Each structure stands twice: as C-alpha cells, then as structure tokens.
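Extended Data, panel c. Modelled sequence:
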Amino acid sequence: MRNDRDSTIRRGARALALAGAMAWVLAAGSVGGANAQTAPATTAAEVVRIDATNAVLVRGPQGQLTELMTGDEARHFGTVNAGDRLTVTRGPARITKLEPLPSRNVATAESVDRLSRRLDDGRPGVVREITTTATAEIVAVDPIGRTVTFRGPRNAEHAARADDISIDVAGLRPGQMARIVYRETVEITREGR
C-alpha cells in the first residue's frame, strides 16, 4: 500500500510528464500563440531510457530530454524499450462551458486528467484527457470561427474553440473575465517496429 507522500510524488511526476508532452508539441511550432488549434498537432520522440521505477525518458525533435510516462502510465502503455519511437499527438482545445464574470477576479486554473489505454487500432498507447477549469481574462474573440483566446495564471495565453452552439461567444468582449472549462487530449503511441 502506498503512503500519501509517495502518491503525491507520483501525481506530481505525472503532471510534469504531461507538461513535457505538451511543451514538445508547442515547441514543434504546431500551435500559434493567438490562433486556436483546429487540427491535432503531432510530434515524434525516441525512448532513451526506462529506469527502475518505470519512468520513461524520451528525446524530443530538438534533442530535449523529458520524462514522458511514469509508473502506472507506463504499465497502461505496454512494453516500451530504449530506441522505440513514440508519437505524441495533442488534440485541439474545446470549450465545454463558459460563464462571463461581472468582476475582475484573480486568474486561476485547475486541471484534472484521466488516463486510458488506446484500443482503436491495436497499437500500444495511452490517451490522456485533460479538463481544465480556468478563471481567465478574455484577450480575443472570433465569433465566426467560434474561438476564444484567454489569458490565465502567469499570463499564459490559450485559445480554444466552442463547438456547443449554446455557448455565447459573440457576447464576449476583450478584457472581460470569464470562467472557462475546456478539454484537451494527448495521445501517446508507439510507432511500428
């Protein structure tokens, strides 16, 4: 049985691994700063090492090293060996709920992620769905494309699309604060041998 400290460390490692995967896709130039991503952004990585705790160290396209999966995630993934090529695909962000706020609140963000095994084509892999609830400042609105660019904590800008027609994108104005719930997916697969 794990103690609370070990569990907290593992959760932190998973969050760092996700941040590394997202940083690769962004560093590959697949996403513009103020443009909403409309198609999945994909990048490749090579497994460098797997340590005794099942942490998988990978090298990205620009040579950067990142711990991509740890413990439970690596077990969900299946057999991974040094030298294997992985594909990391980040899906576009989709707004699921948007609520304008009447006052200037402090920008906050809280994410919850869910991990599952890929089942569709038989290739080993995992899919992580990240749901983020953010209190953020609206930076730009495209009512025709139904996209919203917003600034959250640490002045990080994000862009997401509102597919649900019940979300009033046209009523938003730059400078306004809003509570935004959006979803992203990151899929990690092993390329064929």
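The two ends are 36 Å apart (CA to CA). This feature is highlighted in the accompanying rendering.
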